[in-house]
User: Fold this.
Amino acid sequence: MKKLGLLLLSMLAITLMLGGKALAGVVVGPNDSVYFVTYYSNANTSGAPDGTLRIVNDGSEATMAPEGVENGTLWAAIYVFDDSQELRSCCACVITSDGLLSESVNKELTSNEFTGRGEMTRGVIKVISSSTWDPTAPWPSTGLRGWMTHIQATTTTLAAGKQAVEKGPFFVTETALADSNLSMTEQGNLGTLCSYGLTIGSGYGLCPCTVEDYDF
Assistant:
């Protein structure tokens, strides 16, 4: 009986440490992620299909509200880097509770970039689940989940001193965005780089956002 009492007290202590979430059936830990990374490949490449970034709002920030009154709105703060580790475009796209955002790699994420140096073919995409519309000052808030289609080449040619040339046929794979650790330094760097790029680019570098729930 004493052992049972100690066990119940231990369970109660753990529940209180979790803020009562265990009683509410809420899973804590990895599911509370606010920062995600992925890559894009063979973008703007002849004969290759377009890649797509898809993000949903899981509704975890929604509250009780009258029918038809939207709440729990989040923004996907998106930062697109090239394969030289340079930020080339950024934006924050709205996603309402239970909504879907679909972004084309060719037509949106890499179509309007800061430098004007030409088409981007491969690089890194970072996403912050944010409660603000401003990509230069993201405010992390849980609730977004995402997936990315990747365009895989079957032939790669490496020329001395030149960039790799990838050829088809091309195949499409899809993976979930990788949960990552968002430090204050990384958050500040992304916002600052985005701010500098949008300012110096004089309007260039702001990636357009698809109308919510319009998929392709």
